[in-house]
Amino acid sequence: MATMGWRVRNILIIILILSALLRLHGITNPYLDDQGWRQGDTASMAYNMLEQLDEYPEVFFPKLNYDGSGPQKVELEFPFLPYLLAWTWTIFGWGDFWGRLWAVIFSLLTILGVYKFSSAAFSPRVGLWAGIIYGLTPITIYYGRVVMPEPIAQAFSIWALVAILNWRKKSTWGRLLISSLFMAGAILGKLPQLMLFPVALLIGFFPFRRNIKFLLFYCFFALLGPMLYYTWVHFGAGTESQFVSGILSYQVAEGSTLYLKNLLENFQKGLSYPLLLIAILGLIIIIKDKKIHMNISYALGLWFLITFTYLVIICLKIPLDYYLVPMALPLALGAGYFLAYWQGKVGHGKRALLGGALVLGILSFQHLYYYQVKYQWNEEILGQALWIQENTEPNSVLLLSDSPPMTLYYAQRYGYRLTNPDEEQAFGDIRNYPSNYLVILPGSRSEEFRQKVKEFYREVGPDVYKL
To answer: Are 456 and 415 in contact, with CB atoms under 8 Å apart?
Structure first.
């Protein structure tokens, strides 16, 4: 940043401050808002690390609180955030605030990386536009403050591209090793980030025949860690806990349902069609501009192609909006280039600013209008869990009346879940679990089910029954 002009530096600082303020909204909220399940999973991994922070590599095997009377090993991404969170709790004490703060920090690092990459590949003006678009995009605002893998995976991803671009400008073995480790971090942080690997290869090594030894070095160190880790957790988690491979095999490869309506709705709310349009226009201009190095234009074109393929193969079969988060990076880069190009064509006057303000206004409106509901959470869940924590034995095992497992994290207990939708069978299943307490979650099951539970079991707390 020392080489930046003061004007550019100050604008970038303003972008980072504004982006931080947007992401600090609800920073003290518990992990019970939208995607509370996934956030609770991340936090429970940190909880299960507390007693083994110095036990390597076992500490890095993800463990959750549910479907057992003790920590259950699962096949998930490398637990970067849980490990940081566990150490933060150890030093500063327990608090939901810390997990969100780490997410915000990595989200801001992603915005800074977007600026650095765009500036190096194109110009500081493109970097500023791309940075503010990424900073104000609704899906990156919300998922830039969640306790999930997304913030860290996005940060590793963009800095992996910054690092390989820096290596291209000054080709040392040290820089190449650093860039490969950033790419490994991106893939470990979230497996879909593997789609960035061929983009990085084009940026760093095209034309390939001149850089074979560097290319092989990069591939080895970028892929070795992820291959070893995902193999380790796949075989170590057991057949009942294959989350990553299970999603790829059952929902993607074998899934027959296409969630087109959900996809279109999630895309419009989180990213928007105007953003997609100007991003595509920006890509067209990039490809046609002879002044841009071929490795950059080819890489951006490939990135957009891979992103579209990812949209069709993955997002069309998984109706969860956070799977769209990886799309925000290429769209921000393409849209940033278009707005910078537009500004250069019409000058620094009102028309250029008006066009940019319109795009940013659409993004801000979407966040205010569509995304506020995602911050809401049920206080009854937290109150019930805290009662259990304070009034039941520390080694007690819970049986939850439904699938969402966040209660186990906040109660600091292990347990099972009644996942059978048939209430008659679910009631009969209660005796099959080695549990001490049955917990009827807020909004869970019918009144008939609750009355039947009251007939057979003694209520000792707020919808908590002794078994």
So the answer is: no
**Within 13 Å, how many C-alpha atoms sit on residue 244's CB side?**
24
pTM (two decimals): 0.93
Which helix (H) or strand (E) segment holds residue 16: the answer is helix 6-23
Closest CA to 268 of 137, 132, 141, 149: 137
Question: What is the CB neighbour count within 10 angstroms for residue 342?
Answer: 18
Q: What is the pLDDT of residues 281-300, one digit of tens each?
A: 999 999 998 888 889 999 99
Q: Computed from CA positions of residues 45, 375, 463, 427, in that sequence, does the dihedral angle turn out positive or negative? A: negative
CB atoms closer than 10 angstroms to residue 65: 27
308-325 average pLDDT score: 93
What distance separates the 2 farthest-apart alpha carbons in the chain?
78
| The two structure tokens encoding residue 241 | 């806990």
- pLDDT above 70 covers a percentage of the chain that reads 94
What is the per-residue pLDDT across 256-287, written as a single tens digit (0 to 9) for each? 788 999 999 999 989 988 899 999 999 999 99
Instruction: Confirm if 303 and 287 have CB atoms less than 8 A apart.
Output: no
Element of type H or E holding 38? helix 36-49
The pairing of beta strand 464-466 with beta strand 458-461: antiparallel
Helix (H, G, I), strand (E, B) or coil at 440: coil
pLDDT of residue 390 exceeding 90, the answer is: yes
Q: Can you spell out the DSSP letters for 273-295? A: HHHHHHHHHHHHHHHH-TTS-HH
